[in-house]
Amino acid sequence: MEILIPFLLLAGLGIILGLAIGLVAKKFEVPQDPKFTEIRESLPGANCGGCGFAGCDAYAKAVLEGKAPLTSCAVGGEPVSRAIAGIMGVEQETFEKKVAFVQCSGDTSHAQDKMRYDGVQHCLEASMVPGAGPKSCPYGCVGFGTCVTACKFDAIHVENRLARVDEEKCVGCGACVAVCPKNIIKLVPKSMKVRVQCSGQDRGRDVRLVCEAGCLGCTLCVRTCPEKAIYMEGNVARIDPSKCVACGACIAKCPAKVIRMIPADSETAAD
Q1: Is the pTM of the predicted complex or chain greater than 0.85?
Q2: What are the chain's domains?
């Protein structure tokens, strides 16, 4: 009895407190907008963070509050954007699929190692050693696959120490972009077919010393483009997809051959 009575008292107190908490929660419960549930159910549930919010619940809430565009769900794409527009009773926004693009051509056949590296096989750690990593080019892909680990969709792989993207699998979530220590993975419109596969900032002979497939910074492409779609970002050429008509003039003129036409169904890489 000495044990039973305290046990019963504690159990009874627990039941009373539980009921009290339940009643208080019900009394002060904030009614949830049914549109939230509809939006949430229309999302794919990947919780990848590619929309810029901490998961699908947070994105649905932001859409409902008018704090997020309807086209931010890269995984769901246009069908999800269309569904959300219908729920919100607004006109569908233009959706343009984006894919990850690795701005590097420096695989092992073009950019050799300048040192023997026996450290942690992780891009961030490797890029912090003197010289910005073991590769001869300090700007290019480290090649240890941190981006591969970050991708939930099996859309990026490392071949010959260079990350390559399978655009058919890529949903444009940006997870690989966020973890790349060299900042050479970018999200680009999938419709953008002409791309510069280099991120180096050296010029001329200095480029050739570290990579056989690097932009020379010669500006020939800038002067050749009839649409004025190419500009220099430091010493590397970049293309404005809103102006490019994929005429190929820059590709033909580029002495380094780092400006390439990307097929819609191929894997891509860059420098």
Answers
A1: no
A2: 34-88 (1.10.15.40), 98-268 (3.30.70.20)
